[in-house]
Structures
1.
Amino acid sequence: MSDLTRLSAADLAQKLTNGEVSSVEATQAHLDRIAAVDGPVHAFLHVSSDEALATAKGVDEARSKGEELHPLAGVPIAVKDVVVTRGLPTTAGSRILEGWIPPYDATLVTKIKAARLPILGKTNMDEFAMGSSTEHSGYGNTHNPWDLDRIPGGSGGGSAAAVAAYEAPLAIGTDTGGSIRQPAAVTGTVGVKPTYGSVSRYGLIALASSLDQAGPVTRTVLDAALLHELIAGHDPHDSTSLTDPVGAFADEARRGLAGDVKGVRIGVVKELSGEGYQPGVLARFEESLDLLREAGAEIVEVSCPHFDYALAAYYLILPAEASSNLAKFDGMRYGLRVEPTDGPATAERVMAATRGQGFGDEVKRRIILGTYALSAGYYDAYYGSAQKVRTLIQRDFAAAFEKADVLVSPTAPTTAFKLGEKLDDPLAMYLNDVATIPVNLAGVPGMSVPSGLSDDGLPAGFQVIAPAREDARLYRVGAAVEAFLEARWGAPILTKAPELEVSK
Amino acid sequence: MSTPWRDEVARVAGLARIDLKPDELDRLAGELEVIVQSVARVSEVATPDVPATSHPLPLSNVFRADVPETPLVRDEVLAQAPAAEDGKFLVPQILGEDA
Amino acid sequence: MSDFLVDYDDAVARYDTVFGIEVHVELGTRTKMFDGAEQFFGADPNTQVTPVSLGLPGALPAVNGTAVEYAVRIGLALNCTIAESCRFARKNYFYPDVPKNFQTSQYDEPIAHDGWVDVELEDGTVFRVEIERAHMEEDAGKNTHVGGATGRIHGAIYSLVDYNRAGVPLVEIVTKPVTGAGERAPEVARAYVQTLRDMFRALGVSEARMERGNVRADVNVSLRPSSDSPLGTRTETKNVNSFRSIERAVRYEVSRQAAVLDDGGAIVQETRHWHEDTGHTTSGRIKSDAEDYRYFPEPDLVPIVPDPAWVEEIRANLPELPAARRKRRQAEWGYADAEMRDVVNAGAVDLIEATVQAGASPAAARKWWMGELARTAKEQGVDLESLNVTPQQIGSLQHLVDEGRLTDKLARQVLEGVLAGEGDPEAVVAKRGLEVVSDDGPLLAAIDEALAAQPDVVAKIQGGNLGPVGAIIGAVMKATRGQADAARVRELVLERVNA
């Protein structure tokens, strides 16, 4: 039997539906793969073998009885550890939640369980989703399958690495400033941040409430479309949730796969390239544009001048909201509790000791910054002003979308850097997200697809951005780029990744 | 050594209930200063005529009916608590608590 | 350390009192403000919580539409402007009973603002209190302090937290500084909260029982040399749990602050704590970081934009408010102005109404509540509605009197039994055997005995001297332990004697 773990989710789903393969076989194959390679990769924080196999068994039984099943039923999936899963440990990559087992499921998990996808486990991430390299996880680094000495991106490095290492065909990520898209770019995988509000945030451990969105992490655009359709939709538990019907993303992806981009106006954002972008990354980006142009798309240049302020606005809005969202972690109701050894163990002192020990450096940095930005006398100059920059960025997008159907850019300025390289320079680390952040600020959807290998032999990403509620456009253009590039390469980009050493 | 930024970080850490060790305080003071200065450039474009956007997509009047939903299972919740007694969360002495 | 106090009358002669009141009312919705956990009295700890009201990671708020409607009702009844658009805001502070360590409230965009309410004082004077704002927010959980030698863990001091109350919908009503009340400030403060309490009930938005914490008040007081002077520094007094406490606390603060000012001192802006048992306020913990709440608009919720047509519909359907209702009731019950005022001041309007609905006449209802029950309440030092008797029971009691099964005197004994917890009037009558003897047989026997004991009385009565009849009646009453209808005994005596 050919390796089940190399199949795309769509192909695996097909085989399951045809009865060629059972879900138990498929799930076990992925669990075996995890056991074989996750030592060095360390994508997973928790592997839920029993639960996954139980779900798989149930699906197989249902299928044998001829029951109606979701198209993806029985296809295994990994979930970023920022998503609350009842009965499975959920840490958000932080020691302050070590051992916490949630008593409820996130809405998207409820949907995944209803569709009966076996959950393989929870994936590693930067602590509370703050970071671009997963180096800020409280549980150790995740290693890029392309080069184990390099970062897998962040904050969702675990999900991207899992998918890139064939440990899972599907994964869930969350994206606040690029945490799905940037890992996708540096691991040669696909990642989508949906329109804000189109996927429920109920059960996502909040980072920045006005920026967070959950989305698919996959190896192909079609797989992302299928997963996106499953998790999207209105949720009464989330007051910021849109009531729009879920788009026909898979159909649009198939349209793109057939190369149908004639007449589509592609806007190249002037501000999202140039200084700071690796030449190899820019070169792959340009080549992808050429392919689109050859296929009949119209390439135009657009300018979004306020994007230059996006990073600054983001690093005020996010810490402010996060500082408030993370206040609940205080050792009183769940998670770590630390009692100070000196002096009285009052509630206040226990809270401060718990948070001092339980939070990592990056989290403390951002909480301090956010608390500062909101404190009396500073609100208008910092948080208040940042919210205005948001308005200006939305206006820039609106103007750009008058001229173009989608906007494009390199997803991230560089390929995967070495572990430890940027840890001492927070500002340098923040620059990884310069192309992805404006998307979150405006609430519009964005996707990263592999654009090829840079001069250093490492993957780069091509970002597609659509207007709010037009996620379908991402799938059409993204799938087209994927199809054109794979035709040129002869195979998906991941086949060019070095084979991971398998432990016996 | 006490500098304005170090004092500021100490004050804010108090507000945020986070114990910082002296070396952490020093490091954060330096980092905070740099970050704050670089993000202060938002003031350049945030003029009075520009409205603030709190929500990416404008929604309003989202309400829920006054209808009960299933509550949490208490045992499941308290099993996760650092300490519990008599069906309640046991927390350390609260300063200034009204008797 | 006890405070120096200036005699109240002396203080108000030399200083002008300005006060303000913050009232929190728990809305009587079925579920909480931001989630579907039910709220009802007496639930087992931590059984009425969802991930939202427990503040679990990942939880998100969802606004209870009925709570918003109740808030609008309150705003309209307070003659406020209802905001065209308003938002929720996060008030950030750390406290174990606040599960998210922030409270979702409203900051600079309250749902209602700039209103007024007329408050009627005991002597009929009407005082207008201006309202600054009314806004929506959520309640916190409840801490039970377990301490020291009394704690299970000997010597340890800790708290137990129940989050059932966390997330219960609240409306906070803040007055503008109330000026011009002068020496009547304590009275006005009390009457204001009573007026609000009655209003909440009439609107159907809350049971509004102060003793259950449905309504809570904090009182701000400041003094100034004269009404032309700028406002003085104010103190905020918490833990005023009854109408009486409100009045006493204001009085006390005036006396205390006058003493400080007389001495050349300055009033410390602080939160103080009222002690009902000792009748004084003590200084609370002075907050070191002046509580920087870092308010910002709640990003997990979207603005509320009340549809003007909807607001007008609520306004049109507002139930009759207490003042109008009192006038109508007074007319229906036929009470004189002074009688009605007494009833209102005693907080007995609703009680009398319920008693009338239970079958008693308005006159009888007033007699009970303003007579025997008022006296009992005063003795016990409680409000009328805290007494261990219901209007339904008074209605039954009066019915027994109307039927002739009880005399007034017997009825008072039955009432004693009801108050003592012996059950409903019928049960007490049966248990204590208090019913009026309705059978003439035992009465005649007692009469004959009494007449036999005083033979010369018969002749006197027969001779037209009716004076001694009373003595015979008295003897019969004594023999029947008061369970005879005196009028009937008199009839029978006369029949017997003249037979």
2.
Amino acid sequence: MANYKVVRSLPTIIILIILITLPLYASSYVVFVVAIALLYAMVAAGYDVLLGYTGQLSFCQGAFYGIGAYLSAILTVNYGWSFWLAMPTSVLFVGLVSAIIGYPALRLRGAYFAVTTFFLAHFVYLLFLNEVTLTGGPLGFRGIRPPESIGPLSFESMENGYLLILFSFIFIYILLRKFVNSNVGLILKSIEQDDILADSIGINTAAYKLLSFVISATVAGFAGTMFAHFFRLLHPTTFSWFLSEMVVIITLVGGVGTLIGPVLGAGIVTFILEFLRFAPEIRYIGWAIALIAILMFEPKGLIGLIKRVGRRWKYA
Amino acid sequence: MIDTLVLTQLLNGAILGLIYGLMAIGLTMIWSVTDLPDFSQGGIYIISAYVAYWTITLLNAPYFLALLIGALAGILLSVSFERVVYNRLRPSGVLSCLLAAIALFFLLENIANALWTPKAKIMSVPETEVTLNLFGIVTSYHRIIIFITSVILFIFIHLFIKYTKIGMAIRAVAEDREIAALMGIDTSKVYIATWAFGGALTSVAAILISPLYAVWPGMGTLPLLKALVVVILGGFGSIIGALVGGLILGLIETFGAIYVSAAYQHGFAFIILLLTLSLRPRGLFGRR
């Protein structure tokens, strides 16, 4: 049985080794794209807790990502805070904002929550664009420094910044995995299956929905702070509605309610988007059609497809 | 004596509110019949405005013909979305339909972007761009057309929903789908009618307001969001609520832009949304 376990975890180990050693042989462009994909993977895995495990549709991960990025940038640049202080502060703030927004919207059943989050994404974009004294508005926010070094560990170079993102991603992923496998994860799953039934057996569904919303938001906020200090230039359009849409697409393409699916989805979506950079009009039309096709023909996403093919293999 | 600025803005706010109200009625009907806030109406808003723009610029057609053709395009799109996408996704739940609606919105936005470029177009209607001076209120002929057309439409909608057979069927299905089906109402016909209705209202709203603003691929998002807020503010499924909610939002936006902040003109609706959800979730005229 031990052998079986080793064989099963072999792909993961190989992928991890490739990712860790990536800066040694890949061009800085590839490292950069993979870092962005890892940030998307983080946001999408956090979002999966909300969409896949709790069954709540929201469209504002981009807003939380943006709040995390901007707040951390403002605190470090304008107020001279250390990244290691600004990052947790920003993450806490994002959690607070999500709780304030989620509280009224999640008590109601139906699509109220989705509409509210959709609007939130726009409102936050408006804030980034108009609060010029704080965010730089349409000119963007410049002068962000990389995280301060801890002892001998410096994050000045892009390679080390990449490794910081990679290890944060692994850390967040393990935390999320532990969370969804816990008893709370089971409760969330019961809400996803039937929230009226969950209510009737004494589960405070509104509170658990809020919890999973706050968790998904803080993960997005955390990824946002990482993005700010890795990319070092923030612009409102980066955090427009499209980013939130991307996160939803990534999660669905990968497969909802699996946690690993969205991670896979992030890799594939980022890769294809980079590949289609020469045809910007076509790529978004293609994405929209792909999303509708997935919903209609393979609602379990890539993971569902892999599982189905795997089963066919076993019985063939 | 009231300031003429206030009076002018009162008229502008009311016109904006009527447009929100028109779009909100379509959305609230679809929402109450199938539990789906149909985001794809935002895309229909864009495409029908472009169709009308084309009719005017390429065919040199009069404005009202463009309005009619644009509305037909809207109905066609709306009904085909319901038949091809929502109808098939309905068994897998509202969540999938909502996601598909967002994807359709995204699709239409990008099709507009590819077909007509991101550059904003001006839908010019020379015969209506005449400035009028009504008792000190400076306005254009076109604004009066918007006002009169939408008031006529509201009366028509009210009569349609209240007294026609299909209007009654729509209300019955909104009340309870299963029982309506058991009473012999053909629900799939009702769905088609509702979506046709929604598509028509969205297109009319878009084409009425376009000559005042510009026609561009991103034009659909804000009206869609605001119409959704109006639906929630006015009360789910209520037509009078959509009208009153639209007027309230239109007036708050117009006066807020002058007296509070022009940059956050589009943010007021979000605050209204949060206040409605926390203080009166069933909306002003909602029954639940």
